[in-house]
Design brief:
Layout: H1 8-37, E1 43-49, E2 61-65, H2 76-87, E3 93-97, H3 108-121, E4 124-127, H4 140-155, E5 159-160, E6 164-170, E7 173-179, E8 206-210, H5 217-220, E9 227-230, H6 243-247, E10 258-262, E11 265-269, E12 286-292
Parallel strand pairs: 1-12, 2-3, 3-4, 4-5, 7-8, 8-9, 9-11
Antiparallel strand pairs: 2-12, 6-7, 10-11
Length: 293
């Protein structure tokens, strides 16, 4: 005997089919959003810094950009959009914390022209990330890529700091700025540019530390610095609790984005501008502005 169209079993089958269809449609919508919408939807994250913790001139505005990742999934036009958005925040000091490319550097002259807009607006300093750092024992192509990235930054008039420290005049005062080499490529050497802690005193100037991979924090805690800026994590690229921590390429999963205090120091991790594989979900690309006071 055949079932009538209105029988309980047929209604159940229709409901199951519609539920499956709705689930599939939702999945496709989420996938399309993660691939084609959110990776290009920049946001500005403004963070206030306690002047006791970071004793720089009050009102100092630090623009922090990271993980630009020019390459197959991040266009120069998008990076330029992030630069424009960052400059609209009227920064006094600009920090770039690595991963300027994915793969081989292309459009070098045009890329340098975009980044030069930052250096023309305010003192701009950069450290290198694992995608652009020297691999001392690695293939020749890795070393060549690093030379190209360093050349790009110098052409853009950006101060490249690889285990180096300098002082800069900003907003009527001075700030120390250090940049570390990348952790994964074994170029991270804090002893080369940071002063060991002695007693309970602190340095006379606020000390800003640029360090691509936040896992390198552990090696720096025996030295003076006040505020560390990092990237590398992309905020996990997928802002789903549990998933984002799992995807974030760091050992310390307790802090993959935002501002935290660790042993009296401040650490800020930005989600970054670009992405790997061109995917973001509930983890929008970020232009970060840190304001003292």
């Amino acid at each position: 005997m055949s079932e009538s169209p209105s029988s309980p079993r047929s209604r159940t089958t229709r409901r199951a089919f519609l539920a499956t269809l709705a689930t599939g449609a939702a999945g496709l919508t989420a996938a399309a959003y993660a691939r084609y919408a959110e990776p290009g939807w920049l946001e500005v994250a403004e963070v206030r810094l306690d002047p006791v913790r970071f004793p720089a001139p009050r009102g100092l505005r630090i623009l922090h950009l990271s993980d630009l990742h020019l390459g197959p999934h991040v266009s120069l036009d998008f990076i330029e959009e992030a630069v424009e958005l960052g400059l609209a925040q009227r920064p006094d000091l600009i920090a770039l914390t690595g991963d300027f490319v994915t793969g081989r550097l292309r459009e070098a002259a045009a890329y340098a022209a975009v980044l030069r807009r930052l250096a023309n607006a305010a003192p701009t300093f950069a450290c290198l990330g694992n995608h652009d750092a020297i691999v001392a024992a690695g293939p020749v192509g890795e070393v060549a890529r690093t030379a190209a990235v360093v050349g790009l930054l110098r052409a853009a008039q950006v101060g490249v700091l690889v285990n180096e420290t300098c002082e800069v005049a900003v907003r009527g005062g001075r700030v120390r700025v250090s940049g570390l080499g990348d952790l994964w490529t074994k170029q991270n050497h804090p002893a080369r540019c940071l002063t060991p802690l002695r007693g309970i005193g602190r340095e006379p100037l606020a000390h800003l530390l640029l360090n691509h991979n936040p896992d390198a924090r552990a090696a720096t805690m025996a030295y003076h610095w006040d505020l560390m800026l990092s990237g590398h994590t992309h905020g996990g690229q997928v802002g789903v609790p549990g998933v984002s921590e799992w995807l974030a390429p760091v050992k310390d999963k307790s802090h993959i984005e935002g501002l935290q205090s660790r042993a009296g120091r401040l650490i800020y991790i930005t989600r970054g501008v670009g992405s790997l594989y061109g995917v973001r979900f509930w983890s929008r690309p970020q232009v970060s502005l840190l304001v003292v006071g």
